[in-house]
Amino acid sequence: MAANPQFDMGPGSDPVLLQRLSLLASHLVVALVALVGIGGATRVMEAGLACPDWPLCYGQFLPGRQMNVQVFLEWFHRLDAFVVGVALLVLTAASYVLRRRLPGWLPWAAAGSLLLVAVQGALGALTVSQLLASPLVTAHLATALLLVALCSGLYQRLAIVGRDLAAPPLWWLVLAAIAMGLVLAQCLLGGSMASQWAADQCLSQGNGCSWLLAHRQLAMPAALAVLALAATTPLLPRGLGQLPALALAAAGLVGLQVALGVWTLKLQLQAPLVTIGHQLTAALLVGLLAAVLARCLGSPGKAVSSARLAPEVIHG
């Protein structure tokens, strides 16, 4: 199958540089998933306002005297976001300065991720200053999930540069897009519900149960879409690399997510680790589905021919 010219590396691409940037992108995905998980822990432990100011905490980079579990969670959440921002700044700067040695799409994707980080930081500041207003908390989560998806897709595209991979049929790509859309909608509905403490109020007082009901109702089509994606992998052609395995892994995460959701309700939201695990699994699922979509585009262009590679690259 012919390579898509939009993702063509070009004759001057550097495979060693690509490998290093791919490693940086993989670390970014891990840090972003952790960021969503820590953010969920911050909400569950009611630590969203543990640091009353922003970007410092009690006017200090490290608030030693005020440090407790809640302050630590909010402080560490901001520290992880800062590390992510610096890493994306490095990725964007490197991809722009060295753009002649890299795929043409990389500087744009890196710059888009950096822009999302800036938006995320602004939303974080507003979240604190506006005392955890529900729309801001939900927008903060939405931006974080978009970052996970974009960086996961960016890493996958870098990882398969130079590999002669096919693309799946169009119907499977559409199914993957539907699964991603439903999962994102489910995550945002759950985030909006959590930001209003609707599930807690429903279980304890019988109020706000419409949010919980909507979250449970959307869970079914979202789960079925991901399971259908995995179930149809035997119908796919060969030469897709790790794409079928990623779809099967997403189905496994769906099973875990459903179990954690049921367990969370049975425990009346009184087990913080289970609730945090539910939110962390959702972020992992978004990252996996973004990886599936990125690989659905097929090979981003063949690598530089062996005649162009440096001897140390050819011989290891």
Order of helices and strands: HHHHHHHHHH
Radius of gyration: 21 Å
Estimate the strand proportion. Answer: under 5%
Major sheet characteristics: none
Give the termini distance in whole angstroms. 28 Å
Q: Helicity, in percent?
A: 55-70%
DSSP E strands, number:
0
Tally the structural domains.
Answer: 1
User: Structural class per helix/strand content?
Assistant: mainly alpha
Rough outline: flat
Number of helices: 10
Mean pLDDT: 87
Unreliable sequence segments: 1-12, 301-316
Give a description of the structure.
- The structure is a single chain.
- With 316 residues, this protein is an all-alpha fold.
- The protein has one domain (5-308).
- Helix content is 69%, strand content 0%.
- The protein is built from ten helices and no strands.
- It has helices spanning 15-44, 69-97, 106-129, 134-159, 170-195, 198-205, 209-231, 243-266, 272-296, 311-314.
- The radius of gyration is 21 Å and the shape is flat.
- The two termini are 28 Å apart.
- The relative contact order is 0.15.
- Residues 1-12 and 301-316 have low confidence and may be disordered.
Feature tags:
0% strand, flat, disordered C terminus, mainly alpha, 69% helix, 10 helices, 316 residues
